[in-house]
Amino acid sequence: MPGEPIRGSDSPARGTVLAGGLALIGGALAFLGVFTWLAIRFDYPDVLDGRAADVLPALLATGDTGRAVWALYAVLPLIWVPAGVAAFEALRARAAGPMRVAMIFAALAALSMMLGLMRWPSIHWELARAWGTAGESERAALAAVFDGLNRYLGNFVGEFLGELSVGAFFTLSGVGLLREARTPRWLGWWGVVAGVLCLVGMWRNMTSSVDLVAEVNNYSLPLWMLALGIWLVRRSRGGETT
Which of 1, 3, 169, 223 is deepest in the core (most CB within 10 A)? Predict the structure, then answer.
């Protein structure tokens, strides 16, 4: 029944919590791998502030491998869906309300981040193909489309809305962990801090005053994903972090 903790090795919730924990762990490791590849081959994330004349040829130069990496990166946010459901199942006994909201924000994070990243292997890729044979006036139009997509899908949908949703999910999960009697309080506070970092760092496209927080958040996010994922895996097996 709703509100009851996970009991018994045959409980359906155990599999759900385990799947969510593994999704977070695998997602964090995949995120680090993809981020590193793009940083080396595509000057990511600095390239996000580049001009179409520089970025589009560089994107096309990464070839089929680069396009595949971007496609993988674009679907990675889907891990927030099983993660949100797993966190709800694991923490609903003492924090049903906050965790229901957290689950909704996790789904919104998956959708918004995926939409933002999908522009690279799809629309941006086609813009890059057209750029090579386009005339001066055509390139001006392509550059305008490129810049507009970066602002809307990248800065505001993928990053701003996406990080707002992730920050809310982390913060509410931290609150849920703080209500768990057998879970160390530092783990819950870590979740709250990780969430606040996201909520502050998401403003980086509007003001440079939060650049340092955004930089810290780039390292905090995968670490907290690993920590929450490990906790969920242990929770699914009837154990608690110590």
Answer: 169
